[in-house]
Design brief:
152 residues, two-stranded antiparallel sheet
């Protein structure tokens, strides 16, 4: 079985690809994308399920998702009905939802980065204990001290 493995030639690019994937920044980016996708789902729900009903209540019960203008076709009460009937619509409410989601996402990212920057600044401000000298440094100090003692 070991003889079969030794005869299989692995192309050079496989090793390069493996090294590329295992770099810290590529793995960090992948984790960031996955967390970003989950975070997007949370923000979408926040806008759709929390903010839009509250805004609709404040401005008179308007449901943004059904705020549309029919350009061609039957004029129906909801966007879903109009789309089902094949009407051409200008979906103003869906655009407003997207703008609101963007603004919320930008605000959350702003505060998150601000918090991380503050935490990072505090971590840098804390005095770290100096590292212990290496063997080389200790030997060099002894040589320096010996040379200084001979000159004196």
């Amino acid at each position: 079985m070991a003889d079969i493995k030794s005869h299989v030639h692995t192309p050079g690019w496989v090793g390069e690809f493996r090294a590329f994937i295992m770099r810290g920044n590529v793995v960090d980016l992948a984790v960031g994308v996955i967390i970003g996708a989950a975070f997007t789902a949370i923000v979408n729900s926040l806008v759709k399920d929390i903010f839009n009903p509250l805004l609709g209540l404040v401005i008179g019960g308007i449901d943004f998702s059904n705020l549309f203008v029919t350009l061609k076709g039957p004029h129906l009460a909801t966007l879903a009905e109009a789309q089902k009937a094949g009407a051409v619509t200008l979906n103003i409410g869906l655009f407003l939802n997207a703008v609101i989601q963007f603004l919320i996402m930008a605000m959350v990212i702003f505060w998150f980065v601000k918090m991380l920057t503050r935490l990072h600044g505090q971590a840098e401000a804390a005095p770290a204990a100096p590292p212990a000298p290496t063997k080389t440094e200790v030997l060099l100090e002894q040589i320096r001290d010996e040379l200084a003692a001979r000159k004196a």
